[in-house]
């Protein structure tokens, strides 16, 4: 029998061993402290000096590095004039440390310090960011890396010991994020103008897609787009371009492999990742190891993380690692290696009208998606593949309804694109078989016209907490019934994404659910608390796309002393009203409108001010509530006040022979607005004097990229037609003819 020396040592030196184990335990649980000072700053990233938030004087925030077994102690010093918070994305921790204001803690007040303290019980690439308002958009994002112990049995030689660079992707806009959010809710097409993606009638005719454009609007859809916001700059670690020539003082040379720990810290941008040096090898996703898989490219969803390996194929060259926004408008890169820079070919412009045609095929007249019998799941069947000309270049072939691979990117060409079905965990991830199962079904829903994003047509403030029990297996089935992708993030837990890999299904905390796609995830409920589950596109989340999963019979959270107050503050995000105003100063008079809109409500006034008594002036005010999932119907109450000087024998009558009040009227009204095909607003209302009015109206018809048309006619024999040329986001040159005020030209101001 061969004796183990360690066993002998243990038998003869038991006291020493106990002391050694005790000391190792102390060492393995060492406390790693970071002090983070959150402070306002001014930056000039894109030609204008704008406000940003820096932490310890830098954007992005400092990279926080730990080793599994450490205890994190993070002191957040809020030097802002507003509240803040920090969320540790993808981390397993006590609920009170999760960093969601008004849910797991109260916000960190100005000029105070909050301490987050939690054990590091996992490893992998993660990130952290503010969960307060829109602060993430202006600088509050950073890398959070947890290393494996050297003796970790899952340590992979040739992967976990490679030279490593953490990268956080982000975007920058010169607009205030609050203004972006407001503009999105008001269907402002300024971002499309900046991205050259307006898809006007003129462009449709030029591209041979006039029928496609008409069909699109007949189904009451706005123009095709794959992202909501225009960004002036894209960054890798805070820079649009940089070089990686050495790591830890060691110069990179031909044959070297580099591990890139990539986090998408963008507020709303997906990024295509490509490499001039050849293939990309994916080795981890959302902080969890996966079996290595080699691809030509991958798309990283908002808030996802990927660990990838790239190698330097030749000497005296530096190869571009490129991140390109999904809408192809901007990019950032880093050159890896030493020598002459080797560029990666840029991704070509999207074919928007081809994408619009595909949307038309998917959408029914009632606004529901028609999946046409396709098995949409796991990003394998990509609804946007027809818009990616680099795959085959042949749009007609990809439009063939009889082609079974019509939407299968990897079957259409030689380019291999990562999808979720390729991800396989190297360890068994099966859940406890004896645990009870709770199954939840969520339909992701949205209204692009009004920018309302919801789950089961309810925003966070309209839905109760979803109760789960500790110890049960929770299975969530997600179906995306909207026309946008949604990266759904679960706080505090990893989940198994059921992707055909059986017991080796990958562990994730983000699932990117594409239109028409159904995905299933499951996790064991093992950490009590209130956990947020939401779309990680910042403006979708702030619009209400989320739920709270809450454990039954859990202990009160000591950091939420007043739960009712906290809930009111949490609900305030998606209950917020957004303001818009437009005023046309013309030679014939002044007319305009002002409106406050929330998820369900609209409060608006329209006015017309003439320069003469016979032109008069009129103000109509309506308060309405949008009904239904698509929000095409809005019942309203209102008030109409008008003055117009008539001649002694003049009398105004409508098409039904009903007479209006002479000179002046002050009337209450009730009615409905309904969005008709071609995005025409039909209005029917009855006044307190018994008069009725029917009206058809449409604004902002895109004739060319910058030219917009509008019209109105009603049964009061009033009509209007006009044009507006967009100069910038707040000003246009206008001309119109009005039945009451005649021809006029002027300048339109909008906000």
The CATH class assignment of the domain at 578-750 is: Mainly Beta
- Unreliable runs: 1-27
Beta-strand content estimate: 35-45%
Q: With helices defined by DSSP (H or I, 4 residues minimum), what is the helix count?
A: 10
User: What Rg, in angstroms, do the CA atoms define?
Assistant: 29 Å
Largest sheet composition: 12 strands, antiparallel, barrel
Physical arrangement of strands within the biggest beta sheet: 34-35-36-37-38-39-40-41-42-43-44-45
At the third CATH level, what is the topology name of the domain at 578-750? Answer: Porin
Number of strands: 45
Shape: globular
Distance between the termini: 86 Å
Task: Outline the structure in words.
The chain has 751 residues and is mainly beta. Among the domains are: 29-151, Sandwich (Immunoglobulin-like); 233-342, Cupredoxins -  blue copper proteins (Immunoglobulin-like), CATH 2.60.40; 578-750, Porin (Beta Barrel). A twelve-stranded antiparallel beta barrel has the order 34-35-36-37-38-39-40-41-42-43-44-45. Strand 23 (437-447) and strand 24 form a beta hairpin. Helix 6 (210-218) crosses helix 7 (352-362). The longest helix has 15 residues, at 14-28. It is globular, with a radius of gyration of 29 Å. The relative contact order is 0.09.
Gist of the model:
This protein is mainly beta. It is built from ten helices and 45 strands. The chain starts with a helix and ends with a strand.
């Amino acid at each position: 029998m061969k004796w183990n020396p360690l066993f002998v040592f243990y038998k003869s030196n038991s006291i020493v061993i106990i002391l050694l184990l005790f000391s190792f335990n102390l060492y393995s649980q060492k406390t790693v402290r970071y002090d983070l000072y959150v402070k306002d700053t001014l930056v000039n990233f894109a030609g204008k000096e704008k406000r940003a938030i820096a932490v310890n004087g830098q954007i992005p925030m400092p990279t926080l590095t730990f080793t599994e077994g450490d205890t994190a102690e993070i002191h957040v010093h809020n030097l802002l004039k507003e509240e803040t918070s920090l969320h540790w994305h993808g981390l397993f921790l006590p609920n009170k440390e999760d960093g969601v204001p008004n849910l797991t803690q109260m916000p960190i007040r100005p000029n105070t310090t909050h301490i987050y303290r939690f054990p590091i019980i996992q490893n992998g690439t993660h990130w952290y960011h503010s969960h307060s308002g829109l602060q993430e958009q202006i600088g509050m994002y950073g890398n959070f890396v947890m290393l494996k112990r050297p003796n970790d049995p899952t340590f992979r030689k040739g992967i976990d010991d490679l030279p490593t660079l953490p990268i956080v992707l982000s975007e920058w806009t010169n607009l205030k994020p609050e203004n972006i959010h407001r503009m999105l809710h008001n269907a402002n097409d300024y971002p499309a103008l900046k991205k050259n993606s307006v898809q006007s009638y003129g462009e449709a005719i030029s591209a041979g897609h006039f029928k496609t454009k008409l069909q699109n609007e007949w189904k009451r859809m706005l123009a095709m787009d794959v992202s909501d916001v225009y960004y002036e700059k894209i960054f890798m670690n805070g820079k649009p371009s940089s070089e990686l020539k050495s790591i830890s003082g060691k110069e990179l040379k031909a044959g070297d492999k580099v591990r890139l720990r990539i986090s998408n810290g963008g507020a709303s941008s997906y990024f295509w990742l490509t490499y001039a040096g050849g293939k990309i090898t994916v080795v981890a996703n959302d902080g969890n190891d996966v079996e290595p898989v080699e691809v030509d490219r991958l798309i990283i969803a908002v808030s996802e993380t990927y660990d990838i390996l790239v190698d330097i194929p030749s000497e005296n060259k530096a190869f571009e690692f490129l991140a390109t926004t999904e809408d192809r408008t901007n990019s950032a890169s880093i050159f890896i290696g030493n020598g002459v820079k080797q560029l990666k070919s840029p991704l070509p412009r999207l074919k928007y009208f081809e994408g619009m045609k595909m949307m038309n095929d998917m959408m029914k007249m009632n606004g529901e998606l028609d999946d046409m019998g396709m098995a949409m799941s796991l990003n394998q069947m990509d609804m946007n593949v027809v818009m990616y000309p680099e795959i085959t270049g042949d749009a007609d072939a990809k439009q063939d309804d009889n082609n079974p691979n019509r939407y299968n990117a990897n079957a259409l060409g030689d380019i291999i694109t990562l999808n979720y079905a390729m991800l396989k965990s190297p360890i068994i991830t099966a859940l406890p078989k004896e645990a009870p199962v709770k199954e939840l079904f969520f339909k992701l829903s949205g209204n692009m016209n009004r920018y309302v994003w919801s789950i089961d047509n309810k925003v966070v403030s309209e839905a109760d907490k979803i109760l789960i029990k500790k110890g049960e297996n929770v299975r969530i089935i997600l179906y995306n019934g909207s026309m946008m992708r949604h990266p759904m993030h679960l706080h505090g837990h990893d989940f198994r994404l059921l992707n055909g890999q059986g017991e080796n299904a990958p562990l994730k905390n983000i699932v990117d659910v594409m239109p028409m796609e159904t995905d299933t995830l499951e996790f064991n409920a093992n950490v009590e608390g209130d956990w947020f589950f939401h779309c990680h596109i910042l403006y979708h989340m702030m619009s209400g796309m989320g739920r709270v999963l809450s454990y039954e019979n859990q202990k009160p959270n000591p950091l939420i002393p007043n739960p009712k107050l906290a809930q009111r503050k949490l609900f305030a995000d998606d209950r917020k009203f957004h303001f818009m105003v437009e005023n046309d100063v013309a030679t014939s008079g002044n007319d305009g409108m002002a409106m406050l809109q929330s998820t369900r409500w609209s409060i608006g006034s329209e006015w017309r001010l003439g320069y003469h008594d016979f032109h008069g002036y009129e103000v109509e005010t309506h308060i309405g509530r949008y009904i239904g999932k698509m929000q095409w119907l809005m019942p309203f109450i209102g008030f109409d006040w008008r003055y117009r000087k008539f001649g002694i024998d003049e009398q105004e009558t409508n098409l039904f022979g009903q007479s209006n009040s002479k000179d002046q009227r002050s009337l209450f009204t009730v009615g409905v607005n309904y969005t008709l095909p071609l995005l025409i607003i039909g209005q029917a209302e009855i006044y307190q004097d018994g008069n009725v009015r029917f009206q058809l109206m449409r604004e902002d018809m895109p004739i060319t990229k910058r030219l917009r048309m509008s019209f109105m006619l009603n049964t009061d024999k009033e009509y209007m037609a006009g044009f507006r040329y967009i100069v910038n986001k707040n000003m246009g040159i206008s001309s119109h003819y009005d039945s009451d005020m005649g021809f006029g030209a002027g300048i339109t101001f909008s906000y």
